[in-house]
Amino acid sequence: AQEPGWYKPPVEFTKPLEDQTVEEEATAILECEVSREKAEVRWFREGQEIHKTKKYDIVTDGRKRKLIIQGCTLDDSKTYTCDAKDFKTSAFLNVEREYYSHVNTNKRTNADLLQMILTKYVCRGSSTYGSEIRKGKKYEIIAKGVQHILIVNKAVFDDEAEYECDAKTSKTSGMLTVIGEFKLIIHLYFQCFINGVIKFCHMNKKFYETKYSELAADFISRPQSQEVVEGQKAEFVCSVSKDTYEVKWLKGDKELEAGEKYDIVCDGKRRALIIKDCLLQDEGPYVALIGTTRATAELFVIEEDLRIIEPLEDCETQEKRTVTFSCKVNKPNVTVQWMKAGEEITFNKHISYRVDKDKHMLTIKECSLADEAEYSVIAGSDKSTAELIISEAPTDFLTKLVDQTVTEFEDAEFSCMLTKDKGEVKWYKNGREIKEGPRYFFEKEGEMCKLHIKECRPDDEARLFVEGKLEIITPPKDIFEAPGSDVIFEVELNKDRNLVIDAGKPFTMIVPYDAYPRAEAEWFYNEIYLPEENIDTFTDRTEYKLNEPEKSDQGRYKIIIRNKHGKAEAFINLEVIDVPEAPQNVNVRNVNKFGATLSWEPPLYDGGSEITAYIIELPS
């Protein structure tokens, strides 16, 4: 079915947002792509709408949509959503701390050690002693104002040592310990903060005792509470301190497993629980569990208003047929209200209502003209309306004519029953219409129609049929001899017929015949063979259709009926009546305030019928 003219497809995301990880003070860019350039979107952070500020920049570039977050902080580790009304896309921004060493030498806890997982060595000051370190593939030396950074690339166990920063007048040092899969741990002691030229040196590690330890499992970022609209998906995201840590997801005391309802994602240190098609019963606390460490977040589901997403469409049918209106709503297995001409419909065997998930169907069986009306469906505050148009079915026959055999001068009676009591019939004998007279009498009572033939004679023996679908075939004269394959039925055609029709009105020329076996028919106009697409031939008749008769269709038609036993011919003289042409030689004279004298000659073409009057109009 075609979309209605007012329908506009919803905006979709051709490229969704992707999760990102950035360091503190960095700039994060969340980017997605929509299906239309002029589509409007809104940005949200944990359900709260974001507007353009110094912190946030919202950019539209063709079909691209960007959210730029300046100077990221740990508090910016949230879920961000781009909302295009009918569709949404979300991503988690993970902001990692740029950790600096501690100045105290007290015993460190696991949390302290976790904060020292670095790929950078950071100090403030300058100068060296010992084995000097120079910039190369292994080491990078960076100066940012009073801040000086030593980067040890791809730390291995051989890199374990004390590292010192010497500023001539002051020094600071720290111990690098490489633990298992972690990159490096630095114990750093600050002594001064000065400007100057710096050099880094590497102390011989044999003078220092190194210790190896495994950090306890913990969260780098925890899942945040979510608020979603019913039917959308919710995503809880967290980060763990080690790639190999397993996270279990719980709702209440029940552990959740991946399936139709949930997706569980494990990507590096990122862990996520995705809840599909959120329902009101999905609300509540969800727990991410690493060993004995728990992180809890709440899911809030906003109930969506019931609305129609595929409206009703107008239907047109005939009497006695079945028709169905259908629509779709945004929620499965709900109940909607059906109205006819503003009144609620009571369902019965004639009108029934069925629901299949989000599809709602109203079926009307054996339609009558009384069912023609405006039908509406109401879903919540949403409403859709369509019209049912019913055309009157053509009259058909319920009972067939029965062959009759009577003795000469006896009366005969043929009867048939119609589908409608108001139906009109015509009776034919050998293709010619029968008119009432002394020997032919028509009777009609409701749906029953009868033909009475008084004092039957041998010339009354013929083929009778009623205009419509029903026919009667009179058996051979010797009714006691069944026709076999060698019996030939004589082809009987009307030898010459005159027909008069109106121009522009569809008309079908019908030639009935009687032949055995079935015959083929050919139609000719002025000896020109007519195309077969307008010809229909049946066992008892052949027809030629004129969809829009014109004056050029007027003339003599020849019909040839053939079977293996021979052929027969019939002729139709067709006259097409059309509007006359304008009068000729119109002359106006003797014009004065009392009137004028007009004269004219008849038109060259009178439309096929004698002109009976002329109309003269005087403009006011």
Describe this structure in words.
- This protein is mainly beta and 620 residues long.
- The protein has six domains: 13-96, Sandwich (Immunoglobulin-like); 118-207, Immunoglobulin-like, CATH 2.60.40; 219-302, Immunoglobulins (Immunoglobulin-like), CATH 2.60.40; 308-391, Immunoglobulins (Immunoglobulin-like, Sandwich), CATH 2.60.40; 397-472, Sandwich (Immunoglobulin-like), CATH 2.60.40; 496-577, Immunoglobulins (Immunoglobulin-like, Sandwich), CATH 2.60.40.
- The protein is 1% helix and 46% strand.
- It has one helix and 53 strands.
- The strands form 13 sheets. The chain has a five-stranded mixed sheet with strand order 2-9-8-4-5, with no helix packed on it. A five-stranded antiparallel sheet has the order 11-17-14-15-16, with no helix packed on it. It has a five-stranded mixed sheet with strand order 19-26-25-21-22, with no helix packed on it.
- A hairpin with a 2-residue loop joins strand 40 (440-445) and strand 41.
- It is elongated, with a radius of gyration of 48 Å.
- Keywords: Cytoplasm, Disulfide bond, Immunoglobulin domain, Nucleus, Phosphoprotein, Repeat.
- Residues 9-94, 285-391 form the Ig-like domain.
- Belongs to the protein kinase superfamily. CAMK Ser/Thr protein kinase family.
